Amino acid sequence: FPHADILNEKRSLVKAFFAEEMNQYRITFTAPLINRAAVIAFMTYGESKANAVYQSLRGPSDPQKYPAQLIRPRQGKVHWFVDTEAAQQVV
Fold it and tell me: Are the CB atoms for 58 and 20 separated by under 8 Å?
């Protein structure tokens, strides 16, 4: 969730937070935990996600707006599974 306080988490691996956009509490894996994974997969589709995919992969660093930029594993592999519409700005 862009601009969520949880994006600043450095120590906890799993954390509960209130997602204002959805008006509900959520439990989420934090970036420190995700970055420890051996394999990470992003799956997205649709033209409405094209800018977010582009910004996450090629845009300037702004992880508060594009949280996927926080995912930078030291040893793991990251795979992006996107359809043609979501990838249109990247190719």
Answer: no
* pLDDT value at 20 more than 90: no
Q: Which two tokens stand for residue 72?
A: 């930078």
DSSP 49: G
CB 42 within 8 A of CB 3: no
Residue 21 has a pLDDT of 86
3-state secondary structure of 55: helix
Q: How far does Cα 15 stand from its chain's mean position?
A: 16
Strands 14-19 and 77-82: unpaired
pTM of the predicted structure, to 2 decimals: 0.89
- Name the 3-class secondary structure at 59: coil
